[in-house]
Specification:
single chain; about 270 residues; mainly beta; 2 domains; six-stranded antiparallel barrel; 15 strands
Length: about 270
């Protein structure tokens, strides 16, 4: 054991330069680089073993005090486009307080936040970049299209984008000011609403100014200019009738039957 140095852990949580927090398990706050790392004595960090396989193991950060606007928003399911996580370990000279070495223990994104409001703490489950490259290959035998993103390479459909001011928010419903430019029924169904990079999926929309979202939008979106993106429910009929894009449909258009058609009937 080297008694001339000790180790501390630094945790960076960054959604944007203005929305971030920096924590350390050291007994006092530490300035490192351009950031001030807040001392959190209760901080607990999981063990992440680096491997070459495309695994989906989670990295857990526990006992984070819910303090400040950023962590309070995170604990209340405020929508962020993504939250980058970096965990580093520093070796500190016990006499001079100089940083001797730095090691990166984990880099990835917050996958899930688990708040414990009665205790005033929260837990974060994080996943590394390998998780986001571990995708299913092949074409499933279902009635749904397999393209994961509407438009762009592969799908090729033309995505409709409109900008509107939010008039009101009530539960899962978001109401915009003024009518839509493109009034095609179900055009924006299964699309999403975006503000400053944060996206919320449109759960249901047929027509009109009210959009039912998958997650309740924040009340401070009222009065803000949001971007509406058209969507697709992956059905062949939608691809054909709304987007006129059947030539690029990636699916069989029907589900696997629950009988053997060679010797059984429906």
């Amino acid at each position: 054991m080297d008694e001339t140095k000790y180790s501390v852990t630094l945790v960076d949580l960054e959604a944007s330069p203005a929305q971030s927090d920096h924590l350390t398990n050291e007994g006092d706050n530490r300035i490192y680089g351009i950031n001030v790392y807040r001392s959190v004595g209760s901080l607990e960090l999981g063990i992440h073993r680096i491997g070459s396989a495309l695994d989906t193991k989670e990295y857990e950060i526990s006992n984070i005090p819910i303090q400040g606007t950023f962590l309070a928003q995170l604990s209340n399911n405020y929508p962020f486009s993504s939250i980058a996580v970096t965990v580093r370990e520093l070796d500190i000279d016990i006499d001079t307080d100089a940083v001797l070495t730095e090691r990166t223990l984990f880099k990835g994104l917050v996958y899930q936040a688990a708040p414990m409001p009665l205790q005033g703490h929260m837990k974060l489950l994080c996943r590394g970049w390998k998780y986001y490259t571990d995708i299913t290959a092949g074409v499933p035998c279902t009635e749904q299209c397999a393209w994961s993103v509407l438009g762009g390479r592969g799908c090729g459909a033309s995505v409709t984008i409109e900008h509107h001011v939010v008039d009101s928010v009530s539960g899962l419903n978001l109401t915009i000011v003024g009518p839509l430019i493109d009034t095609t029924p179900f055009l924006f169904n299964k699309g999403y609403v975006e503000l400053d990079g944060a996206r919320i999926k449109t759960k249901y929309h047929q027509s009109g100014n009210i959009f039912q979202l998958d997650t309740a939008p924040p009340s401070d979106w009222v009065g803000e200019l949001v971007t509406l993106y058209s969507g697709c429910d992956r059905q062949l009929s939608t691809c054909r009738s709304i987007y006129n894009n059947e030539i690029n449909y990636l699916g069989l258009g029907f589900a696997m039957v629950d009988y053997n058609p060679f010797y059984e009937g429906a």
